[in-house]
Write a structure and sequence with these properties.
With about 90 residues, the protein is an all-alpha fold. The protein contains four helices and no strands. Helix 3 packs across helix 4. The mean pLDDT is about 90.
Length: about 90
């Protein structure tokens, strides 16, 4: 009876039960955002670690300055062209 959303009572029950779930989701989103902001202030890296070491990144930048193509760099380092663009930018 209450699961039937074609009736007024069913729609009311869905609204009543859905309200706290929406509030909880909003609280989670807020807490997560605050936690990420605190982590960034502490200097913690967010996201997946890079496959390329600092030395490889430096070498890629030098090769990029020598006008080697991004596609060639990506193939030689086993990276995506996007990662090479981010590294050499």
């Amino acid at each position: 009876m209450f699961g039937d959303t074609s009736t007024s009572t069913g729609r009311l029950m869905i609204a009543v039960l859905g309200g706290p779930a929406e509030v909880e989701r909003d609280l989670i989103r807020t807490r997560t955002g605050e936690g990420r902001a605190r982590a960034k202030l502490r200097g913690q890296h967010m996201g997946r670690p890079s496959k390329m070491t600092a030395a490889l990144k430096q070498k890629a930048r030098r090769r990029g300055k020598d006008r080697e193509s991004v596609a060639d760099l990506a193939r030689s380092y086993g990276e995506s062209p996007t990662a090479i663009y981010r590294t050499t930018a």
